Amino acid sequence: MRDPRSSWASPWLSGSIPVLVLAALPALLFVGVLLYFTLWAVVFSFTDLELFGRKATDWSFVGIENYERLFTRRGFLESLWTTLTFTFFSAIVGQSVLGFLLASTLRRYRGSMRGTIEVCLMLGWLLPDIVAAFLWSATTSKTGLVNQVILGPLGVEPVNFLNDYALQVVILANIWKGTAWSYLLYSAALDNVPGEVVEAAKVDGANGWQRTRRVILPIIKPHIGTNMLFITIWTFTYFPLIYAMTGGGPGSQTETLPIFLYQQSFSVGKLGYGSAISVAMLAIVGVMSIFYLRLLKEPK
Amino acid sequence: MKAPIQGAAICALFAGATPALADVSIMYPDWITALVEPAIEAYEAETGETVTSTRLPTDGYDRRIAVDLAAGTAADVVVLDSFMVAQLADAGYLASLDEQLADWDQYQQFMPALLDVTSFDGTAYALPVDTDVRMLWYNRSVFEEAGIEMPWTPETWDDVLETATTIKDETGIDYAFVLPAGTKQGEAATMQGFYMALLGADTAEGERNRLRNWEEGKWIADSPAIRQVAELYDEVYNQRELTEPSINYATDLGNATREALASNELGIFASGSWERSCLFNCNGVDIPSPEERAEIVGWTPWPSSGAEGAEQGANVSGGWAMGLNAGSGDMEAAKQLLTTIFDYDNFQPWVVDNGRMAVREDIAASEDFAANDYLAAVTELSANTTGRDTYPGYQVVSSLIQDMTGAILDGVPVDEALEEYREALVDEFGEDSVMTLD
């Protein structure tokens, strides 16, 4: 008698084991490729593998030593804190909130003003990171635009922003760089909010804030979740802009985890320790993703 | 047993990226373009083959070449900082030149002491491109504005700190004394900053001013000399705030000091003999004449800390080198390109025009080299020079030193920064290979 569970499959497929195995090969290969690099990192995180010298070829397993050092040596926890600050202010507060405000404000306008603002937003997003890094560094230098055009006329002494407010500057730069994404996503989401529902709330006497809070936000909640998921992961692992602008400095003021990982792996050359850092990052991002995915689920 | 598996995996991964065998390839940092490019043209004209050349910015070049060699994707001819040679040769990435260049008639001209720097276990693995000495450069117009007498001849670190403090007070510039620090500029922070101070820190007797004790075969985690240098960093960046730390992390790192000099924001700069041209342009494009440059900047040897028995003008030399990738697909072609670059007629003019110190006897003896005042003066400094502690593992030690200076610049107390340095050394080499000097 046939197993009812397999009734969905074509009898041709389920009838022959070799064909079945053959058909599964591409899928296995795909999963294998996905797991390959992660496993590589996990395995090497338990070794003292180095980039050059003896330990590049003659490495050995060192147990959980690398993981212990995440907590007992300076660097990881400090960088984790910097990364969380950077992610919270530049992605969650900056890009997401600013993107939503722009999307909800601009949808009332049609025509050239909206177009112009959209193009400007997109330009920041489209500009290569390295170019953006040089632009921001030039703009915030002591002889840069901010000092010349804004602070100078006000009689304020010129400020070297990348020296005195490095983290704030990279956060602002990332807000500028990434807001376009949130704006586009929220614009599309808001277009999907039925006009009648908002209209009905208005008739019921809800003011603007109440309509946003109680009607619009709940409707676009899944979009907010998706957006948060994306930008949190991106920002948490974001490297080029900060690295080009400050290299993690001055000192370690802007040393986010990706930069710390890069320094340890490729400057110091400790690939084993670097792998442990990347596995820890993977775990942290994983936990955050689960949090957002739960947020995405429709309440029953 | 592990290596072949790893090697096979890497080969499989990068097989697609290996350049075709017929071409010979070279990778080099931007600053050396004026030496490499004419040789590439000459090689192509002679052989009719094309050279695949990769020219990269100098910032971050060290990391790229190490990663490329480790991954098996490096060019056939590789340019690298000489301090990396021992380590990369130890890992088997570089071809032995004693074998490869035995029949090249110009090989004997290279000075043995300099080939030593690019050797490992008694075998040369790269040809030295240049060597250098280190000193304190100063900006003449800033000194004039601050009312400091020139020529400037400081005798102790205190003299330097006092001068820099005067500059800061009198002119209010941001970078009164740039002492290279932190991780972004890599080896420059270790060599131009930390090591130069270290050599003049404690009494010259008994090799106390080093990072490694060669007799005992141990890395030095803590010593009066290391402590004094750490305190010097603390003095410059925290106590007296003689320089804004950000210049060590500038977006356009290569240009930052150059720009600061041009806009008279830079007072004293701890760097090396190449700055004679590099403070303007390393490749000598559109720069003032040597006489005009001497009007803009002056230099003085590093003084000692002032401690008893400490040495004036002690120096450490490095330099760059060029070697052959052990995994090169066409060693003959690679060898020919290498010898074309180092051919006397290509190499000698570059050395003299760029004010580089000679690495070959015949270049040192050539007429226009000997007639150059600047080269004569820096060669004098090299009478009392040493090399870095390029025992395998040095790369890690150097990075940890950079970390330490970065931490101090961040405000970490000197004691804590030194303790963390010791811990990191023990992590890396084990308690038995690390020592403390009292």
From TrEMBL, chain A:
It is found in: Cell membrane. GO terms for biological process: transmembrane transport. It is a multi-pass membrane protein. InterPro entries: MetI-like, MetI-like_sf. Belongs to the binding-protein-dependent transport system permease family. Residues 80-294 form the ABC transmembrane type-1 domain. Pfam families: BPD_transp_1. It comes from the Bacteria. It comes from Pseudoroseicyclus aestuarii. CDD domains: TM_PBP2 (cd06261). The chain crosses the membrane at residues 12-43, 80-103, 115-136, 165-186, 224-245, 271-293. This is Carbohydrate ABC transporter membrane protein 1 (CUT1 family). The keyword Transport applies.
TrEMBL record, chain B:
The keyword Cytoplasm does not apply. Pfam families: SBP_bac_1 (PF01547). The keyword Signal applies. Keywords: Signal. InterPro entries: Bact_solute-bd_prot1, SBP. GO terms for cellular component: periplasmic space. It comes from the Bacteria. Residues 1-22 form the signal peptide. Gene3D superfamilies: Periplasmic binding protein-like II (3.40.190.10). It is found in: Periplasm. Belongs to the bacterial solute-binding protein 1 family. This is Carbohydrate ABC transporter substrate-binding protein (CUT1 family). It comes from Pseudoroseicyclus aestuarii.
